Amino acid sequence: MRRSMKNAISLFLLSMGVSSLMAQTSEFKIDVQQTGAPIQSTMYGIFFEDINFGADGGLYAELIKNRSFEFENPFGGWVPFGNVTVQTKSPCFDKNPHYVRLSCNKELTGTGLDNEGFKGIGIKAEEKYDFSFYARTVTNGPIKFRINLVNSGHDIYETKEVEINGKDWKKYSVVLTPEATEAHSRLRITMLTQGTADLEHISLFPQKTFNNRPNGMRADLAQALKDLKPGVFRFPGGCIVEGTNLATRYQWKNTVGPVENRPININRWNYTFPHKKFSDYYQSYGLGFFEYFQLSEDIGAEPLPVLNCGLSCQYENDDPKENCPVDKLQPYIDDALDLIEFANGPVTSKWGKLRADMGHPAPFNLKFIAIGNEQWGTLFTERLEPFVKAIRAKYPDIKVIGSSGPQAEGEDFDFLWPEMKRMKVDLVDEHFYRSPEWFLNGAKRYDSYDRNGPKVFAGEYACHPNNRENSFLTALAEAAFMTGFERNADVVHICTYAPLFAHVDAWQWRPDLIWFDNLSLVKTPNYYVQQLYGHNAGTNVVPLTMQNEPVTGQNDLYATAAVDKNTNELIIKIANTGIQNRKVKLDLNGLSGGKHKGTVTVLHASDLEAKNTICKPDQVVPVVSEIELEAPAAEVVLRPLSFSVYRVAF
Questions:
Q1: What is the pTM of this model?
Q2: What whole-number distance in Å separates Cα of residue 427 and Cα of residue 151?
Q3: Distance (Å, rounded) from C-alpha 584 to C-alpha 634?
Q4: Angle, vertex CA 46, rays to CA 41 and CA 47, nearest 5
Q5: Cα four-point dihedral sign 189, 192, 196, 197
Q6: pLDDT, position 576
Q7: Which residues partner with 544 through β-bridges?
Q8: Helical H runs in 33-148?
Q9: DSSP E strands: which ranges in 192-330?
Q10: What pLDDT, on the 0 to 100 scale, is given for residue 23?
Q11: Average pLDDT, the chain
Q12: Where is the Alpha-L-arabinofuranosidase C-terminal domain (predicted)?
């Protein structure tokens, strides 16, 4: 936080209990009758990117790595034994042409395959898992396979057999029901019959997915998203949308249709950071745009897809040949128009029919589309403009999101905002990964923004301390900063913390909102800040001032207020970033005299470095208490280092 804060807190906590010291009283004036700007239902959302093994190995529930043998090393994730080769002749799927041929002639070792999963395969006892593959025999007669789950001690703890027959590709499946829980299993396939057979698209999927959907999401991770009560779900990411070159950019049309025939793509986080290189990091696209739209619907969020604008990542590639010329952008523009048709078009349209064929005849009711991630300069603006014109012409109700570049200020930012206004985009995507000091000093950021220009989409933000960890320090700084989002709800329409997920054994970037391993997850203090805002958004801002000024750090306090017209409640959010208890008088204009019942939810830690871990997930969690506030004048006492949310009935 502020420079001397951490040292002061350490001395303070050594010398006395924090509750024994009280600073001067502050007075907040809150006018419930002066209803202000509406708070958008999309205000507090989530941003997903396939970084830190967030999709394959994370949210996407598939447990087999490289299930179609399409990695650059076709045996990536697999250990073949015996006579196993990779083939491409007469494949089962044209977009995934590789498959394996297994031949068994009583080799001493046997013949088969062993898959490591994603840092192991997480299996829970007594739950059912669907094992499946496509296969054909090359030699005459049936061939039998044994399917094993093997634990980290190399012991077999589940066995089933599958027999295949016939020289045409067919799908075979069996249900595994292990009796043990194991975080680091392996899947083993062994031939039991002499002969030769081909295998393709080998899959192990829990039956228990989020909403029990086939090809669905890992239940606990998706439920954690729903529990945020998000207003919007941005996907499929940031930098992966751009790609390191145009060939590796994210192309949504490759992610729809039969899951077995979606071509894979190397993930740019495979190689971006040399010290965090994961050569086995690819995108299977099992989690594709249909699944993203469906997940948005399942968690109650508006879908917000981001598409490539014809540029490769400007950080990674300065080769002009890896940028699509402006006069050849039409295929990229068509992709955007076709995506809107896929989401909203009738079943009689080309792309609407595909959506229906995939199991969702009703439209997804797409309202937003973002073009480009965090590009900058004229390279970006001259490409964005034809997208805006084409979308406006065909789909005038769709809100188009532009960008202010990768920084929250500076030359590129100053160039892009006027350009976004000139093009009349609906929202401008701002990104900021900054220090705790920046967040605390930035609570006034949007107070002076143009009220008549495009609205703000704070599309990627997170507080980054020196150690880049998710601590209570970062969560409290974000809570303080976010009071400025709400107070300026007439300008800020969407905000999404980033990144969302990180596998504890395979991450490239931190901090992240939710950490997980193969069996469990941990919600960071930052998660709870987002959840408190999402669950307590309200419908309209109301004025909250101290000495006629917004509360943006005076006496270490940050505050905002809103009303919820649906529940007839006043919602007050206050971050106390100081090391003292703070007594606050509330002048509640517009509330009837007398006692008003409600609740206060407090997120607090006496140690700024406090964090939640897989082993200790509840070190920093919100605590809810019932309260009564006396109107028109009430008094509350704020704990030091706390974020408090008050809800009281009118």
A1: 0.95
A2: 50
A3: 8
A4: 135
A5: negative
A6: 98
A7: 30
A8: none
A9: 195-206, 232-235, 265-266, 282-283, 302-307
A10: 62
A11: 94
A12: 459-642
3-state DSSP assignment of residue 383: helix
Q: What is the dihedral of CA 348, 349, 354, 360, to 10 degrees?
A: -60
3-state secondary structure of 378: helix
Ranges 237-241, 283-287, 613-617: which has the least confidence: 237-241
Asked whether the bond before 632 is cis by omega within 30 degrees of 0, the reply is yes
**455-463 and 544-546 strand pairing:** unpaired
DSSP helix/strand/coil, 579 = coil
- Closest to 32 measured CA to CA, from 614, 386, 544: 544
Cα(463)–Cα(488) distance, integer angstroms: 20
Alpha helices in 159-236 (DSSP H): 219-226
Q: Going by C-beta distance under 8 Å and a sequence separation of 6 or more, which residues neighbour residue 612?
A: 470, 522, 523, 524, 525, 618, 619, 620, 621
The residue type at 245: N
Copy the structure tokens of residue 237. Answer: 């990411």
What are residue 149's DSSP bridge partners?
A: 158, 187
Length of the chain as a residue count = 650
C-alpha span between 309 and 238 (Å, rounded): 12
Residues of the chain by 3-state class (helix, strand, coil), percent to 5: 25, 35, 40
d(CA 638, CA 581): 6
Q: Residue 161's Cα: distance from chain center in Å?
A: 38
Q: What is the DSSP string of 599-613?
A: EEEEEE-SSTT----
Point out the residues that are catalytic: 374
Residue 647's nearest CA partner among 631, 622, 621, 626 is 626
Distances (CA, A) of 212 to 173, 205, 220, 292, 361: 18, 11, 12, 15, 19
CA separation, residue 588 to residues 311, 489, 500, 560, 634 (Å): 52, 21, 37, 13, 8
Dist. CA 472–CA 121, nearest whole Å: 31
If DSSP codes are grouped into helix, strand and coil, which group holds residue 283?
strand
Tell me: pLDDT of 641 over 70: yes
- Compute the distance between CA of residue 186 and CA of residue 444 in angstroms, rounded to an integer: 52
How many CB atoms are located within 10 Å of the residue 614 CB?
13
* pLDDT tens track for 130-144: 999 999 999 999 999
- Number of helices followed by number of strands (H, E) in the chain: 11, 35
Two tokens, residue 153: 């001690």
Q: What is the pLDDT of residue 17?
A: 38
Tell me how far the alpha carbon of residue 289 is from its chain's centroid.
14
Using one digit for the tens of pLDDT, what is the confidence trace for 521-531?
999 999 999 99
Residue type, 126: E
Is the Cβ–Cβ distance between 65 and 120 less than 8 Å? no
The 10 Å Cβ neighbour count of residue 243 is 23
573 in Cβ contact with 622 (< 8 Å): no
Give CA–CA dist 615/515, Å, rounded. Answer: 12
The mean per-residue pLDDT over the stretch 372-396 comes to: 97
Of the candidates 616, 624, 619, the one whose C-alpha atom is nearest the C-alpha of residue 647 is: 624
CA atoms within 13 A on the CB side of 153: 6
Q: What are 315-339's pLDDT values in tens digits?
A: 888 888 899 999 999 999 999 999 9
Please enumerate in sequence order all residues whose Cβ is within 8 A of that of 74, keeping only pairs 6 or more positions apart, or say none.
66, 86, 98, 100
Q: Residue 19 — very low, low, confident or very high, per pLDDT cuts 50/70/90?
A: very low
Tokens encoding 242: 């751009």
- CA geometry: angle 325, 327, 331, nearest 5 deg: 85
User: What pLDDT, on a 0 to 100 scale, did the predictor assign at position 22?
Assistant: 58
